[in-house]
């Protein structure tokens, strides 16, 4: 048994309002550079919908993830090593820019410079790749909120087999949002398909990263990842991916997407697992058994035998403590309400989802029923088979059983808690109907509904022994002091990968306005290329037009 | 002049090549990439790139045979001159056609696909020019050898160019051997050394990351967070070799 710790995330889809704040803050932090205009490490898709890039879930087309060979062994779906090397000169399965979308900007200058004329001047869209005017025909979120879904919806890969039962007429449709980041898989197909060995899984926390100095731009990872969460930076010629905000996580603060999530629906915590058992679990013949197989790979740090062995294998005591308190562990293992996204890709993803009950509740209310009555809800979950089957295609390789059980639990929790909130006697039989006690239901409700920051994010800090290697703690630049020349496109010095240092983050969190933040990023002299420089305190003080700046 | 062209210059080129590669590897690992443009365009690339690259692999084998293996050796194991030439010319023409076709497709694609053209630097253009000339002259050499065979007036490069090439590496350069070769052979050799000279400073460096290690590496690579080199090792800030397009009126 080789015990490893994995930083994992759970998202409660019922609470996602599709505001895209997570995507935007992530983009600001990581991909607001030339070369990554089309890249969204975090994206929020409306389902049913085509996703981003379009139809990425169709592995018969893209050949992402793993497959079982006839001898029962696991191999990359796009073929073995030699086959991959043979196709190195032109990757046959790589999505083109049109499958994502061609990034564009507007000719805003025209609004200001146009001469006086009869008609209003307009800002025309220009491609950010060629600079030429373009017709915008697709974007990162073209079918947001089912926009155009009546037309493209039938192309949703997850509708295969149930397409005839799904209605796209406005009155009969259903929808929910699916925020996606890299899954930081236990068995990452991206790493397995990298010819240069540049993609690695960190042994401490399982975060999957691309070594930018070793990546040679072969693009095999891009087709290898079934979730299409590796992107090609067309400016640097290197692959880039979600980093799980490791510079933040190393100092104990959550990822940017979680930190800024408006619905507060993300949970971050550790999962312990047996690394020696991963391959066997991922090689299970039955697709629908993969969910259970992955659960069996996890170890419970509250089991003294596991804890002892973990400690013996060098997992620090505070990490074990954090693993015991992990909200992710509770949602996956104790309440069994979180499910993996597409276990059938066999990469053992580690960002799990609580499927949404809302489509059911809404449908119920629209028919004039009490959407929070347990009896009604249990019945409706069955009657509204379409959302269940759709959800099962996403989360359990089509097995409706586990999805049904999760929705029942969520329904029971709603009904049970209504009585609690209304001050009437809670009905223990509702809890019992889903195999829980009233106390468990209340605890689960607490975690899902009102848990505070410290309960949602249980992140142990990286170890001081390693501190010399951590960018956040050990950049050689004195943080926030010194003039702008230390960073930015004007300098030739390397840009540290960390976006903020711990000190800056703290200062920012505690400050009342930006003027108090030493070394806040200066967009004033930034030419839009490279990385913006740091502003000096003096510059910050003299900044025009910043609210509160003149105080 | 002869000494400069066929002794000094090759050594200079080799020196620049080796030193340049070491320098680039130490200071610009981040810039070491194929700089693929497949994201922009795939239809032409899918045909052109494999043609070009597989043709090149064939050509490398051919050059190794023609330049490195002395004629005396093949004679010794009883390979007839005619048989050898048939193989060399056959292989050479095949490789040449593949490379030329691939190169034309790729250059055409680079020029006509706006986004690919935007991503082409001056450095690339100079390199393509030299590479194109080397290919053109190489093709000429192959064809002139093939035709010369027929009309009975043919230059045997294995008695001139090849020994000269080997003499460079045995540190006893003999410029007279190539000084008497036909023009196209001289030009091909000269430009090839020029290409070698600028090699480390162009995108051609990706040749040296041919990932043979992939074949027997474990699928999943684990690395400790502590294994990271310091933030500056082997890296430098992007040098702005790519223009980012700005909105163009039109
Ligand atoms: S989801 Fe992330 S870790 Fe998994 S294969 Fe894709 S890029 Fe790799
Ligand atoms: S910020 Fe939160 S609520 Fe908003 S789209 Fe992202 S995950 Fe959903």
Overall geometric form of chain A: globular
Approximately how much beta-strand content do the residues of chain A carry? 5-15%
Rg of chain A computed from alpha carbons, rounded to a whole number of angstroms: 25 Å
DSSP strand content of chain B: under 5%
Which stretches of chain A are poorly predicted, pLDDT < 50 over at least 5 residues? 467-500, 545-551
Dominant shape of chain B: globular
Task: Count every helix of chain A, treating DSSP H or I runs of 4 or more residues as helices.
Answer: 25
Write the layout of secondary structure elements.
The complex is a heterodimer of chains A (551) and B (250).
Chain A: E1 3-12, H1 21-30, E2 43-47, H2 59-62, E3 66-68, E4 74-76, H3 81-86, H4 97-100, E5 104-106, H5 109-113, E6 125-127, H6 149-152, E7 176-180, H7 189-193, E8 199-202, E9 208-210, H8 220-224, E10 230-233, E11 238-241, H9 246-249, H10 256-260, E12 266-274, H11 278-282, H12 290-297, E13 298-299, H13 304-312, H14 317-324, H15 327-334, E14 339-340, E15 351-354, H16 358-366, H17 374-383, H18 385-395, H19 400-422, H20 428-433, H21 438-450, H22 453-456, H23 471-474, H24 502-510, E16 521-522, E17 533-534, H25 537-542
Helix pairs in contact in A: 17-19, 18-19, 19-21
Chain B: H1 2-27, H2 43-68, H3 71-76, H4 81-112, H5 114-118, H6 122-151, H7 161-169, H8 176-179, H9 183-198, E1 222-223
Protein architecture, described:
The complex is a heterodimer of chains A (551) and B (250). Chain A is α+β, with helices and mostly antiparallel strands and 551 residues long. In chain A, the strands form 7 sheets. Chain A has a 5-stranded mixed sheet with strand order 13-12-1-15-14, sandwiched between helices. Chain A is globular and about 75 Å long. Chain B is mainly alpha-helical. Chain B has a single domain (2-215), classed as Up-down Bundle (Fumarate Reductase Cytochrome B subunit), CATH 1.20.950. Chain B has 9 helices and 1 strand. Chain B is globular, with a radius of gyration of 21 Å. Residues 230-250 of chain B have low confidence and may be disordered. The chains are: A alpha+beta (551), B mainly alpha (250). Chains A and B meet through helix 3 and strand 8 of A and helix 2, helix 5 and strand 1 of B. Bound molecules: iron/sulfur cluster (2 copies). The site of one iron/sulfur cluster has 14 residues of chain A, from helix 1 and strand 7.
């Amino acid at each position: 048994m080789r015990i490893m710790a994995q930083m994992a995330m759970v998202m409660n889809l019922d609470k996602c309002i599709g505001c895209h704040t997570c995507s935007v803050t992530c983009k600001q932090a990581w991909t607001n550079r030339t070369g990554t205009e089309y890249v969204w490490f975090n994206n929020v898709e409306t389902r049913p919908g085509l996703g981003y890039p379009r139809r990425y879930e169709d592995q018969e087309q893209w050949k992402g993830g793993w497959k079982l060979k006839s001898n029962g062994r696991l191999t990359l779906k796009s073929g073995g090593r030699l086959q991959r090397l043979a196709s190195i000169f032109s990757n046959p399965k790589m999505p083109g820019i049109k499958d994502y979308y061609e990034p564009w900007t507007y000719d805003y200058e025209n609004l200001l410079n146009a001469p006086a004329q009869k008609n209003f001047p307009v800002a025309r869209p220009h491609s950010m790749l060629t600079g030429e005017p373009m017709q915008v025909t697709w974007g990162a979120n073209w079918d947001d909120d089912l926009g155009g879904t009546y037309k493209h919806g039938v192309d949703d890969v997850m509708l295969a087999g149930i397409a005839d039962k799904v209605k796209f007429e406005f009155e009969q449709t259903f929808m929910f949002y699916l925020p996606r980041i890299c899954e930081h898989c236990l068995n990452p197909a991206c790493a397995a398909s990298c010819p240069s060995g540049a993609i690695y899984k960190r042994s401490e926390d399982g975060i999957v990263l691309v070594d930018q100095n070793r990546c040679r731009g072969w693009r095999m990872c891009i087709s290898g990842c079934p979730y299409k969460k590796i992107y090609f930076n067309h400016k640097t010629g290197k692959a880039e991916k979600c980093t799980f905000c490791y510079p933040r996580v190393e100092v104990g603060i959550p990822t940017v997407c979680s930190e800024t999530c408006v619905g507060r629906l993300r949970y971050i915590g550790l999962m312990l697992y047996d690394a020696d058992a991963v391959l066997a679990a991922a090689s299970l013949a039955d697709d629908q058994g993969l969910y259970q197989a992955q659960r069996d790979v996890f170890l419970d740090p509250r089991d003294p035998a596991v804890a002892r062995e973990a400690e013996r294998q060098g997992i620090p005591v505070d990490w074990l403590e954090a693993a015991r308190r992990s909200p992710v562990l509770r949602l996956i293992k104790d309440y069994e309400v979180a499910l993996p996204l597409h276990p059938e890709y066999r990469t053992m993803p580690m960002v799990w989802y609580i499927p949404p009950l809302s489509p059911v509740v809404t449908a119920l209310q629209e028919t004039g029923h009490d959407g929070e009555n347990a009896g009604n809800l249990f019945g409706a979950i069955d009657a509204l088979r379409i959302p269940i089957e759709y959800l099962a295609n996403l989360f359990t390789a089509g097995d409706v059983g586990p999805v049904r059980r999760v929705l029942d639990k969520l329904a029971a929790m709603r009904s049970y808690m209504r009585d609690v909130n209304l001050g009437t006697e809670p009905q223990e039989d509702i809890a019992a109907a889903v195999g829980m006690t009233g106390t468990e239901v209340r605890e689960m409700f607490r975690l899902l509904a009102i848990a505070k920051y410290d309960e949602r994010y249980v992140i142990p800090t990286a170890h001081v022994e390693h501190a010399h290697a951590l960018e956040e703690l050990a950049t050689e630049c004195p943080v926030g002091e010194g003039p702008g020349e230390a960073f930015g496109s004007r300098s030739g010095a390397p840009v540290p990968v960390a976006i903020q240092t711990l000190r800056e983050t703290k200062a920012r969190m505690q400050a009342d306005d930006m003027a108090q933040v030493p070394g806040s990023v200066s967009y004033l002299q930034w030419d839009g290329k490279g990385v913006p420089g740091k502003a000096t305190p003096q510059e910050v003080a003299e900044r025009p037009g910043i609210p509160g700046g003149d105080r | 002049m002869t000494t400069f062209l066929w002794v000094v210059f090759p050594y200079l080129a080799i020196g620049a090549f080796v030193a340049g590669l070491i320098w680039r590897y130490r200071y610009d690992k981040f810039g070491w990439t194929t700089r693929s443009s497949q994201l922009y365009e795939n239809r032409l690339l899918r045909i052109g790139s494999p043609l070009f690259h597989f043709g090149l692999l064939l050509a490398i084998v051919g050059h190794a045979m023609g330049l490195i293996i002395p004629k005396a050796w093949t004679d010794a194991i009883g390979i007839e001159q005619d048989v050898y030439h048939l193989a060399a010319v056959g292989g050479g023409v095949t490789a040449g056609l593949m490379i030329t076709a691939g190169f034309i497709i790729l250059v055409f694609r680079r020029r006509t696909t706006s986004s690919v053209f935007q991503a082409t630097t001056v450095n690339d253009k100079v390199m393509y020019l030299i590479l194109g000339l080397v290919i053109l002259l190489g093709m000429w050499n192959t064809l002139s050898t093939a035709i010369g065979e027929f009309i009975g007036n043919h230059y045997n490069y294995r008695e001139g160019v090849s020994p000269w090439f080997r003499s460079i590496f045995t540190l006893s350069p003999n410029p007279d051997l190539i000084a008497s070769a036909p023009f196209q052979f001289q030009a091909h050799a000269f430009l090839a050394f020029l290409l070698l000279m600028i090699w480390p400073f162009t995108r051609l460096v990706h040749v040296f990351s041919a990932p043979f290690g992939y074949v027997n590496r474990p699928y999943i690579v684990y690395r400790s967070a502590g294994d990271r080199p310091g933030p500056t090792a082997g890296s430098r800030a992007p040098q702005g070799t790519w223009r980012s397009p700005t909105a163009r009126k039109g």
